[in-house]
Amino acid sequence: MVCQGLSYLDIENFTGDIAILGGSFNPIHLGHIRMAEAFYTQFGIDIVLMPNKTTYYKENKVFVSDKNRLNMLSLVAEQFPYMYYSDLEIIRGGVTHTIDTIRELRKADYTRNIYFLIGGDSLEWIDKWVDAEELLSTVHFVTAVRGDTDLNRTKTIIKRLRDEYPKSRISILDMEDTPISSSDIRKRLENGLDISGLVPDYIRDYISENNLFKGEQ
User: Fold this and answer.
1) pTM (2 d.p.)
2) How far apart are CA 63 and CA 69, in angstroms?
3) Cis previous bond, 27, omega within 30
4) Residue 153 and residue 191: Cα distance in Å, rounded?
């Protein structure tokens, strides 16, 4: 799928605790990266950037090619010794469910602790995910929040989930709010606007050099 450089995650041969930061990464931006950096500072666990092929709620969304998304993740992972990237969900194809990925990671090393980084908005609906009870009992979820209002809301959600799923492990990530979205970046690119300060310079350059987000790619 993509050049397997030093930062490529070989699922079958990688053992030990690991964290997943998943998403469309269409494109990856500084908000994603700062979330990963904050997680590593707080937990000291290696992180894998894992783009999805599609999801049940984004099946009609237009992505740039899998190759370009993976290449951008590769460029990011090369900058950090604790980051990897994986094409696991892209190779699997079809609709992506988080539980399928967790089962594959546990198959490779059933003793490992698996962390999953999500936003506060995703946490609110996590009990509606496929096989939510298994997920919440086997994965340590770490959630980023925005501002005091969101923090209080997140604490309420965590309490509810812990009451309903006593084996659940959910932590709040200590990080500054970074209000950046891939959709806003795409809109700026479509309108010919600068995206400096929203993505690393090397990602901005990659997007420019490959003429991305100017239609389907």
Assistant:
1) 0.91
2) 9
3) yes
4) 35
Please report the pLDDT score of residue 8 as a whole number: 83
What lies within 8 Å, CB to CB, of 100 at 6+ separation is: 92
What is the dihedral sign for C-alpha 108, 114, 117, 118?
A: positive
CB 139 within 8 A of CB 115: yes
In contact, 19 and 48? CB cutoff 8 Å: yes
**How far is 83 from 78, CA to CA, in rounded Å?**
8
Which amino acid, one-letter code, is at 126?
I
CB 100 within 8 A of CB 134: no
pLDDT digits (tens, 9 = 90+) for 145-164: 876 668 889 999 999 999 99
Q: With contact defined as beta carbons under 8 Å apart, do 48 and 85 qualify?
A: yes
Q: Which two tokens stand for residue 205?
A: 């350059």
Cβ distance 165 to 10 under 8 Å? no
> What is the distance between the alpha carbons of residues 48 and 65, in angstroms, rounded to a whole number?
20
Compute CA distances 126 → 101, 104, 198, 204, whole Å: 15, 20, 28, 32
- Taking 90 as the threshold, does the pLDDT of residue 99 lie above it? yes
Pairwise CA distance, residues 4 & 11, whole Å: 12
Retrieve residue 45's tokens. Answer: 């666990």
